[in-house]
Amino acid sequence: MKLYIKNMVCIRCKMIVEEELTKLGIEFLSVELGQAETIKPLDSDQISLLVKALNRSGLELMDDKKSILIEKIRHIVIETVHYSESKLKTNLSDHISDSLDYDYTYLANLFSEVTGTTIEKFYLNHKIERVKELLVYNELTITEIAFLMDYSSVAHLSNQFKKITGLSPSYFKKLRLKRRRLLDMM
After folding, report:
1. Backbone dihedral angles phi then psi of residue 61, each to the nearest 5 degrees
2. What pTM was computed for the model?
3. Residue where a domain terminates, one of 22, 47, 63
């Protein structure tokens, strides 16, 4: 039985779901971002207990097809930006459409209607969050980050970063280093 889980966005969330399923004695085949697959169908008591357990962790069991589709779009974007080792071979819209086997226009309209933002804005915001992470780690140059995050140039990355955060990537990096030095002095 496939279970669709809202707000499941990281490896820690997967661990929480695995733990809760195990505590409840529910055998499962797999747990991925946004979903889990159980060996046997769950009865209403098991579902009720699982809903309560997931809610305590900020997760939510979904049964509405549109909500499930929105969550799948979110997970594709998050997986692409944060966890994928390779660059997309097609553009994002084709990737999402091919992954979900739906027309992209339908998916984009549904996503915008439900979330109040476009898939593209959601994607760009996640890309910028990932860039911030990489800047904070201070292991890569801005040029390497631009290449890694599939920007056409450092200028393109810088423009998008400034548009979304109000800061240039280099200034953001300096602020983080300055704060770290201040904390080290305390």
Report:
1. -80, 130
2. 0.75
3. 63
pLDDT tens digit sequence for 27-58: 999 998 888 999 999 999 999 999 999 999 99
User: Are 131 and 156 within 8 A, CB to CB?
Assistant: no
Residues 72 and 54 in one domain: no
- Percent of the chain clearing pLDDT 90 (strictly above): 68
What's phi and psi for 99, nearest 5 deg? -65, -40
Domain extent for 15: 2-63
Verify that 42 and 19 share a domain, yes or no: yes
CA 121, 2, 130: angle at the middle one, nearest 5?
30
Q: Answer for the pair 38, 27: CB distance below 8 angstroms, yes or no.
A: yes
As for how many domains the chain has, the answer is 2
